[in-house]
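Feature request, filed as a ticket because there's no other form

It would be nice if the structure record came with a short human-readable summary line next to the tokens. Right now we just get the raw output. Example of a typical job, pasted below so the devs can see what we mean:
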Amino acid sequence: MAMAVSLDKQNNLSQINEAKPAVVCLDREGVFALGAEWERLSLNALEENAYYCPAFMRPLLQYIERDCDIKALAVYKSGLLIGFLPYVPEKWRWLGASQVNSAWICPFITLTIPLVERDHAWEAVEALIEFMCDDAGRGRFWLFNNLNIEGPVAAIFYGVLNGKNLPSTTFEVFDRPVLDQGTTFDEHMLAHVSKNRRSGLRRNRKRLSEIGQISMRSYTSGPELDAAVEEFMRIEKSGWKGERKTALACSPDTAAFARQAFGSNEGKSITRAEVLYLDEMPVAVSLSISTGRTAFTLKCAYDETYKSHSPGLLLEEDIVRDFLETRWADRLDSATTVAGHAIQSLWNNSTKVGDFLLGADQSMAPGTFGYYVQLEAMRRRCRRILKDVVIKIRDR
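Raw output as currently delivered:
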């Protein structure tokens, strides 16, 4: 049985040194106060989630999500941080019918897997769920948007929930493209990329090479990485995102976030930047982040002057080649939030991602969970209708 601890500035933390897991509830200040143990956990997680590592979360909270009422559950065992789940209470998600605690997500986060230490994964997940059940006053429902429902952490979730006879369901499951190691580049292209796509890539590369010399280089640290991040923001702002004022460089806050989260800070970075050059001029930049052997391809921008030559896809082809030949990671996760992304035509695998809702109240009456599932489904239908209306108005 996990021990629940409520943490504030005056709290005595001796309880977290107990041999059995203790769950500490952190406020925003408590999240920022976490030290090296947070970074250690992100590097030793059973399933990597770079979005929940300190190098990404801290600048996101500092520059963009300033008003976010973020909280976090931290699981300790013998003084070791073995679990971390940031979340946001949503009192009015279902018009006040019941509070929902949502694993923290925002437009910059596309995965909500909690960080659990690989050697204590089952204990960490079990402690989190026991805390959710024992503290139902905080909300009987927990929602994980964009959860890898086929991953090892989800498997433990299902195992613990089944053992406690707790209900759960998923919404909007789709196949997210991933790229795994296993073959050479040439074998990969023949096995997983259509003949028409291969021909199109060769044709566009030849046409672009007639304008100038094409090359691709990768950066992971130092002033070269910082320069690549600046080039990404310049290119992104020059295109349609700049016109809509959604590019990172359009706001001082988002630009500051990008420089700190993706740049080389004090010699450390979780970012890899790949740049496609045309006669030494950047025409496409891709940014990915990683905390282990999984990298998440966050953003790609290309110079729309060369749109007819598909420089973004040419860069993606070069990334596939570099990934398979140098093996700098075991997996690339596309970080997409909808099905049918163009990258699927170049990559070799997929993983099922969906929104996972669980009921953490063992005293819940039969049928009650189903009622709230219907509320959530209705909410999603209304959002889709509203989104379609907004798109139609915008595109008129």
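Something like this underneath would help us a lot:
Confidence is low (pLDDT under 50) at residues 6-14.
Residues 91 and 372 are 14 Å apart (CA to CA).
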